[in-house]
Specification:
- It comes from Streptomyces citrinus.
- Keywords: Aminotransferase, Transferase.
- By secondary structure, the protein is α/β, with parallel strands linked by helices.
- The chain folds into 3 domains: about 250 residues, Type I PLP-dependent aspartate aminotransferase-like (Major domain) (Aspartate Aminotransferase, domain 2), CATH 3.40.640.10; about 100 residues, Aspartate Aminotransferase, domain 1, CATH 3.90.1150.10; about 60 residues, no CATH class.
- About 45% of the residues lie in helices and about 10% in strands.
- The strands form 3 sheets. Strands 1-7-6-5-4-2-3 form a 7-stranded mixed sheet, sandwiched between helices. Strands 10-11-13-12 form a 4-stranded antiparallel sheet, with helices on one face. It has a two-stranded antiparallel sheet with strand order 8-9.
- Strand 12 and strand 13 form a beta hairpin.
- It is globular and about 60 Å long.
- The two termini are about 30 Å apart.
- The relative contact order is 0.12.
């Protein structure tokens, strides 16, 4: 849309430098249904409720009505009897951990709580542990399937465990952890069990409902939701496979009594009584209204159809990737995510990602960690599911692989790695930070290099704690104030 307003023109110019959010070429971060009119509906609903303050539901009862409707829809699909609308997957995960920490203290007297995670758990849980004072117990996963090991997870539980987490699916590999087995052991020990279904819950739940209609290629979906005995909470994002506007997620609970442990209430001050169900106080009801409108419009049958399209496209892409020389899938996809690695030492997947971005496609680089090698993450959405889009993606990926093989892999000087291993991340001087960033190809000027493969290669080769120390420095250079 063209406009003569200089403010809107400036915003349009800024957006021109971003990744596209429609059309299916950005295969991380954004979710596109490909349905006509859905974005306009969401925008109108969001605008209508933008000024409504979700802080006080007694002043704005519409907030309660909309949230109750969304929670009812979600619990009918995924089990449980209570829920909270949040700003996104990270907040849902944070609140799950906070609720478990408070529950462990109140019910079991735990004062030094621990959080048991498979090493593939989302970073949001590590953030929660850091914010809320839990000790993380990270458990290695099966090195072949990349799924949580039930026996190892069970062995990691102690009297101090406040919460154990499993994924459905894990973001990095797209596989579903053995939820039933882990939840059973957690229940036996009296420990809460959370399922991170932020990315997969809405998709898998509706795909499950479509299997009768599409029996010819109906997938086997492992049990993963709140109907599984021992599962006590589950996070599911609406701004992913419900295709709502950003800022919409749900944290579901087995019951309202457990949910109560996550709420904050305060009356010991001279102001108004405060009750917060989320980490936020004041919050616009716009995302809530937009999510309600979109889910009402698409409906259960619509989501089942979209999920089926995504399922078929995911497996078509997986088959196509397997046919490209030098590429392999790290795991058999059980949801809508692919992890694509290289089985050719002369083929660097980070270089492939740079080549793809130069051709208008974004595939998300994932550095090596533990038994998981460097790979590319692909999130398949309904907008990708058209035959022509899948064909174009596979054709361009094959060309990018050829160009990357010609360019050769990024080589990191072993001397740099050896020197970096001796650095103390907590005691780096500003001069040492500058040297480390320069070696990674990040200089002054507030801009990242156009080709990120050299940066990623260096960061991947460094000890994780050193990389974590440098990453804020890398991103900090983008901000000038």
């Amino acid at each position: 849309m063209t406009t003569d307003d200089p403010i809107l023109q400036r915003l349009a110019a800024l957006r021109a430098g971003d990744l596209p959010v429609r059309g299916g070429r950005t295969m991380a971060y954004v979710y596109d249904s490909g349905l006509d009119g859905l974005e306009e509906l969401a925008s109108a609903a969001q605008a209508a409720f933008a000024g409504v303050n979700g802080l006080d539901m007694t002043a704005f009862p519409s907030v309660v009505e909309l949230e109750n409707d969304l929670v009812r829809r979600a619990t009918a699909l995924l089990g449980g009897t209570a829920g909270t609308f949040t700003s996104g997957g990270t907040e849902s995960c944070l609140l799950a951990v906070l609720t478990a920490r408070r529950h462990a203290r109140a019910v079991r007297g735990v004062t030094e709580p621990e959080l048991v995670l498979p090493e593939t758990a989302h970073a949001a849980f590590h953030k929660a542990a850091e914010l809320f004072g839990l000790r993380v117990v990270s458990v290695p996963v099966d090195p072949v399937t990349f799924k949580a090991d039930p026996e190892a997870m069970g062995a990691a539980l102690t009297d101090r465990t406040a919460l154990v987490v499993v994924s459905a699916p894990s973001y990095a590999h797209g596989v579903i952890d053995p939820v039933r087995e882990v939840a059973a052991e957690a229940a036996r020990r009296g420990v809460l069990c959370h399922v991170d279904a932020c990315i997969g819950g809405w998709y898998l739940g509706h795909l499950r409902t479509s299997t009768e209609a599409f029996a010819q290629d109906a997938p086997e979906i492992p049990e993963f939701d709140l109907n599984v005995p021992g599962v006590t909470s589950l996070s599911v994002d609406l701004h992913k496979y419900a295709y709502t506007a950003k800022g919409a997620s749900l944290l579901l609970f087995r019951d309202a009594e457990l949910r109560r442990h996550g709420w904050f209430a305060h009356a010991s001050w001279p102001g108004y009584p405060v009750v917060n169900s989320t980490l936020q106080g004041t919050k616009s009801a716009g995302p809530l209204a937009a999510a309600w409108a979109v889910t009402e419009r698409v409906g259960s049958e619509g989501y089942a159809a979209l999920s089926t399209r995504v399922h078929r496209a995911t497996h078509t892409l997986a088959d196509g990737v397997r046919r490209i020389e030098g590429l392999r899938l790290l795991a058999r996809p059980e949801a809508s995510l692919l992890a694509v690695a290289s089985d050719d030492p002369d083929l660097d997947v980070f270089v492939v990602a740079d080549e793809m971005r130069g051709s208008g496609w974004y595939l998300q680089p994932q550095p090596a960690f533990g038994s998981s090698p460097a790979n590319l993450h692909l999130t398949v959405t309904a907008a990708v599911a058209g035959e022509e889009t899948v064909r174009l993606l596979l054709a361009e990926l094959e060309k990018a692989v050829g160009r990357a093989r010609e360019a050769g892999p990024v080589r990191v000087d072993p001397a740099i790695v050896e020197a970096a291993a001796g650095l103390d991340p907590d005691a780096l001087t500003p001069e040492e930070v500058e040297v480390a960033l320069a070696l990674a190809g990040v200089g002054e000027g507030g801009r990242l290099p156009e080709r990120m493969a050299p940066v990623l290669a260096v960061l991947q080769a460094l000890p994780p704690r050193l990389s974590e120390r440098l990453l804020p420095e890398v991103i900090g250079r983008l901000y000038q104030t």
